[in-house]
Amino acid sequence: METSPKGRRTLKKKLLQLLKEKHLASAREEAGRFPRLQVINILFSFLPHVDEKVKWAAVEIMGELVAELAD
């Protein structure tokens, strides 16, 4: 299920908003509705983010998604 570029931008904005507001469970839930690799790519783009909490929340969710892919 590939989403359009507009859909990816919308998802990126939504995930960033959730991570900034520290809604990690909601961010995980939202991420689960989309292809894992697509979400990992979006989360990867948050690694240079200036807010350390956003950066590490992205790392945590990415780790969970990569572990799911490995199974």
Question: Keywords for this structure?
Answer:
mainly alpha, 4 helices
Strand content: under 5%
**Estimated radius of gyration:** 11 Å
- The rough form would be described as globular
Compute the number of strand runs. 0
What is the CA–CA distance across the termini?
Answer: 20 Å
Structural class: mainly alpha
Query: Fraction of residues in helices?
Result: over 70%
Q: Give the H and E element order.
A: HHHH
Q: What is the count of distinct domains?
A: 1
- Uncertain ranges: none
Molecular structure report:
The chain has helices spanning 5-20, 24-31, 36-44, 52-70. It is mainly alpha-helical. The protein has one domain. The two termini are 20 Å apart.
Compile the SSE list and pairings.
Layout: H1 5-20, H2 24-31, H3 36-44, H4 52-70
Task: Give a quick summary of the entry.
This protein is an all-alpha fold and 71 residues long. The protein has helices at residues 5-20, 24-31, 36-44, 52-70. It contains four helices and no strands.
